[in-house]
Amino acid sequence: xxxxxxxxxxxxxxxxxxxxxxxxxxxxxxxxxxxxxxxxxxxxxxxxxxxxxxxxxxxxxxxxxxxxxxxxxxxxxxxxxxxxxxxxxxxxxxxxxxxxxxxxxxxxxxxxxxxxxxxxxxxxxxxxxxxxxxxxxxxxxxxxxxxxxxxxxxxxxxxxxxxxxxxxxxxxxxxxxxxxxxxxxxxxxxxxxxxxxxxxxxxxxxxxxxxxxxxxxxxxxxxxxxxxxxxxxxxxxxxxxxxxxxxxxxxxxxxxxxxxxxxxxxxxxxxxxxxxxxxxxxxxxxxxxxxxxxx
Amino acid sequence: xxxxxxxxxxxxxxxxxxxxxxxxxxxxxxxxxxxxxxxxxxxxxxxxxxxxxxxxxxxxxxxxxxxxxxxxxxxxxxxxxxxxxxxxxxxxxxxxxxxxxxxxxxxxxxxxxxxxxxxxxxxxxxxxxxxxxxxxxxxxxxxxxxxxxxxxxxxxxxxxxxxxxxxxxxxxxxxxxxxxxxxxxxxxxxxxxxxxxxxxxxxxxxxxxxxxxxxxxxxxxxxxxxxxxxxxxxxxxxxxxxxxxxxxxxxxxxxxxxxxxxxxxxxxxxxxxxxxxxxxxxxxxxxxxxxxxxxxx
Amino acid sequence: xxxxxxxxxxxxxxxxxxxxxxxxxxxxxxxxxxxxxxxxxxxxxxxxxxxxxxxxxxxxxxxxxxxxxxxxxxxxxxxxxxxxxxxxxxxxxxxxxxxxxxxxxxxxxxxxxxxxxxxxxxxxxxxxxxxxxxxxxxxxxxxxxxxxxxxxxxxxxxxxxxxxxxxxxxxxxxxxxxxxxxxxxxxxxxxxxxxxxxxxxxxxxxxxxxxxxxxxxxxxxxxxxxxxxxxxxxxxxxxxxxxxxxxxxxxxxxxxxxxxxxxxxxxxxxxxxxxxxxxxxxxxxxxxxxxxxxxxxxxxxxxxxxxxxxxxxxxxxxxxxxxxxxxxxxxxxxxxxxxxxxxxxxxxxxxxxxxxxxxxxxxxxxxxxxxxxxxxxxxxxxxxxxxxxxxxxxxxxxxxxxxxxxxxxxxxxxxxxxxxxxxxxxxxxxxxxx
Lengths: 295, 297, 434
Prior knowledge:
The complex is a heterotrimer of chains A (295), B (297) and C (434).
Chain A: H1 2-35, H2 53-60, H3 62-95, H4 102-114, H5 117-128, H6 134-141, H7 153-182, H8 185-193, H9 198-209, H10 211-226, H11 230-236, H12 250-259, H13 264-294
Chain B: H1 2-6, H2 13-55, H3 59-62, H4 77-85, H5 88-119, H6 123-135, H7 140-154, H8 160-165, H9 171-184, H10 187-195, H11 200-211, H12 213-228, H13 232-237, H14 246-253, H15 261-293
Helix pairs in contact in B: 2-15, 4-15, 5-9, 5-12, 9-12, 12-15
Chain C: H1 2-17, H2 20-29, E1 36-41, H3 47-57, E2 65-70, H4 73-84, E3 92-98, H5 99-107, H6 116-123, H7 130-135, E4 137-138, E5 141-142, E6 145-157, H8 158-163, H9 173-183, E7 185-186, E8 192-194, H10 207-218, E9 222-226, E10 232-235, H11 239-254, H12 265-270, E11 276-280, H13 282-290, E12 296-299, E13 304-315, H14 320-329, H15 332-341, E14 345-346, H16 354-357, H17 364-367, E15 374-376, H18 384-399, H19 408-428
Parallel strand pairs in C: 1-2, 1-3, 13-15
Antiparallel strand pairs in C: 3-13, 4-5, 6-11, 6-12, 6-13, 6-14, 7-8, 9-10
Helix pairs in contact in C: 1-2, 10-11, 10-18, 11-19, 18-19
């Protein structure tokens, strides 16, 4: 009797959330999967089913492949840059937790993660500017030839990696900081008694013990790296003057296909590819965690 | 650090000298670390500082080579021009309205769903929870195009309602609140209330919500900044100048025919102020909220 | 009455949201006036013109409220695509679109036909040449009202010409290269500081391909040419294409007189960072506003130019006031105002623009072009944007490939590959000639 009443309450309470969730999550996700099998130009009423033809076309579409490669390089580039730096900064921050400056450090490292993306990208755009930017001024000053940061095919990708890492760093540092705080102090004391130096215990103790955190941060960084869009948009867009080189990324290609080329089905198939990548990454994370749990 | 203080008993002269040496070394290490952290902090803030500095430069100085860091002849013209020529304040207003409403929606749905999933462990609920969790990993970009067509059929494009549609629920928020409910609300408390004849709604509003205040606060800050920095969704949902959020407005600001970097910087600087201010005020909540995202497993 | 209703609506929703902020926002959203006309433009500098037209209609329509929404072209095209497919905007909207872009919507019945009086106005050859009225029509029916066109000419800085010992504008494409070499200013290390001829080498979107097409046109090539029966074919994997691309590469890599990261386009010209460039007439208005002291002149291109007509279309229930607006925009007084204050070239014939052109000789190159000057326009086919975007993406790669500059075989292979890619798109849409 009582149990039944409680069950009714549970259903009643969850219903509105569930309805919203179904409408704004489940349905559009299912719709993406469905649309990827259709040829649909937004404007026409016909929407023929074409099976996997969209995916076959993707395989031969060099703009898509270009986007896929760029996005992958950016995602992994951000990962490689962010994780070691975040770990070191977090270790230092942890060491100086009691310092009066700790709050300032934490805020400074974290602010790039919360400020609006577009203004931040504007700032970087100026820094990278080949003719006006301080980066080239600095290079010039120390005698290194100036570079066309936003125009060179390789450098323009690096610019996006730097910008994304700058934004991602704060989050990774924070998560690591939590990780450090949860590490058992006794272990470090024992190590110190055995004569281990700070860097040694960082290398032999912290890094292995923070593995789950590293795994988590890596996956989060990678997934957000695969969704990069605004950064590429802002660094290149500029109707006139000196626009930068457009670094094609997956989300940009997807939006262009659906809203410029009017090929929604095709764009949906790109979205499915993105989904598969993200799912794959998450599965890898889970299986690695499970393995760890077993050993 | 703690064990050093424990060993203050019985010190020989040698140990004392050793202690001084150690302490000095420690001081040096700390100094080195401080210098490192300080330079990292400065590097992280530098782009934003440069942006703000640019906002005060005259057009001529903007084009000068080598670029100046501190404006030689500071001017407020850029701010005046931006505020009079673009609906910057309106865009900021839109962003705030959107972020606040999204926060309310996410906090409300997460509180209810998190509580139900945490304390009503029926098989049906577990299945539903698994469903919520499974979709959490699907990036928004994957399904935003179909969602756009839903917004269109509802006739809410170019409005804060359209923006809101993409940001009504947050799977992670539900998870976060569920964890908190499990860990910080004892079953006995709820049972006792039930025995006293309290209704389920009363329990939720009077017992559960107050206990979840800290977690909900952290979630609220997360949700707010998530909406505040949203870009791809507002970019497709809003197409009229008056409905842009600040991110979209700024991004499109520079695609007009000619670009004035000084004004762009002024507009950007104006936007940075509220977000930095808010962050500094809410830093503790925020850090707590973000930190809790790392406790997923 | 209406006010009371909207207040009621606000209060109920506000209750539901239980937030004071939502209320303040809503009161801003639920303002809807009966006589509202929205104008969507893809050229921010056109906003004052539309406002001017609106002001002129005040006498006949005292309650009419005209909202001009002028944003960057690519964003404008996106909102049109989204708006026309069933969404978002209420009331009558006047939409500014180039004829080629409008095709897709006409094919799918998304733009309504013009009422008969407008149709007569557009079809009258005294008002518009057939080139313009055809582009505003489909299958003999009128859908849009022609307004202005984008047409390119050479803009050159006369002071820089004088300094380089040049007295006349270049007349052949070979001369363009010669001039660019002479006009380039370099610093001590030999690096170009002022480009001799500003070319569009980077950025997103189709602009790169359009600019390339203009140069290609001078050599007798085209990205797409009609092949009869509504089919198309490419015309650049040939000598014309090679010459056009080689000129770009030569200037970038061999002469080093322009590079992708140099300031480009109207901005650079106004600041004296480039000696010459090819652009539409709006630059005249832009210079007048931003660099009134600049000494410059214009000249027609060697063989001809793009002529990209832009029309006004009207959507929404009871679009009468919209059509009236489109017609009012074409009144002689407004068109003269357009030319004088904005600088885009009006398409309407039989209007005396001398009051403007006499004062601003730079317009001469746009109006008094030589005999046999050949115009081309973007094909009115659905996938035109996709074609140009893809060609642009390829060109950007080529513009960064120094090895191609001296390797004709590589250029040919590149052009062939790009042409094949365009053909694939045409084939998919059933537009490729067999």
